Amino acid sequence: MGKLRGKVALVTGAGTRGGGIGNGKACALVYAREGARVLVADIDEELARSTADLIRSEGGECIPYRADVAQARDCEAMVEACIGHYGRLDVLHNNVGITNSGGPVEYGEDQWDRMMAVNAKSMFLTAKFALPHMERQRAGSIVNIGSINGARAIPFPKFAYAASKGAMIAMSREIAIQYAPLGIRSNVVLVGLIKSPIVEQNNTGLYGGDLGEMWKKRDAMSPTGRQGEVWDVASASLFFASDDSRYVNGTVLPVDGGLINMVKF
Ligand SMILES: NC(=O)c1ccc[n+]([C@@H]2O[C@H](COP(=O)([O-])OP(=O)(O)OC[C@H]3O[C@@H](n4cnc5c(N)ncnc54)[C@H](O)[C@@H]3O)[C@@H](O)[C@H]2O)c1
What we know:
Elements: E1 8-12, H1 23-33, E2 37-42, H2 45-57, E3 61-66, H3 72-86, E4 91-94, H4 109-137, E5 140-147, H5 159-179, E6 184-191, H6 197-202, H7 211-221, H8 230-241, E7 252-255
Parallel strand pairs: 1-2, 1-4, 2-3, 4-5, 5-6, 6-7
Helix pairs in contact: 1-8, 3-4, 4-5
Nicotinamide-adenine-dinucleotide (NAD) binds at residues 12-13, 15-17, 22-24, 42-44, 47, 67-70, 95-98, 118, 145, 147, 191, 193-194, 196-199.
């Protein structure tokens, strides 16, 4: 325990839509359990507050913050709130991500613009305002929650989602190289099939509403025969956030049970 003692983390999308514990909330919890003071940001103030309550109930230190990370002014104010409250920012964790199905013909222009703003532009904006503080500190780690769909096509088209997650990999690589001499690292967790509340919400219409069947199908898609858990995403994120990965920079780590290596016919 205590891998993040003395550090300050900012987690975006730290709430969980519909209750329960999603990836962002799990990462914020694990960071706090490891000794970090955490600013938990979400577009939904109530959701940010519920994560903060959970962290505090375990004795962790945390502040909830409302921000739409697709907006520059919100990102700037969010980073300033973190610095104003805790005096530093060691870990920027970009969890926010929305998803939608369809190819270029099915996607509306508005849907494309929103997807790119929330999933990709947000990473540019959080980095834009966080990096000057990390540069001053001569230290920092940016943890980006990507998707295997950012690196591989999946059986159902998610054109804009894939593009946004691909952009995340490119941005992370650019930051990693430009800021390496300043002691700042940036890495991507490539998330595979995770059994999380948002997946349940997004897929209620599948398999005639039979959620058990939906989870079974997702389990069967993994070479391990089961989906991952949000805690698997949190463990990988903790590695990138902590000094355990101090010489790991610009990498992409699949957390997918090996799915990305599979060829299916
Ligand atoms: N669960 C999976 O199987 C899976 C697979 C691949 C990738 N991912 C990635 O995991 C991440 C999300 O995981 P989660 O379980 O935390 O999802 P979640 O939807 O439960 O939580 C995300 C939070 O982000 C918030 N949010 C949405 N738009 C925002 C905005 N503009 N500004 C600030 N906050 C905003 C939501 O209110 C929500 O509370 C995404 O990046 C997603 O692409 C998940």
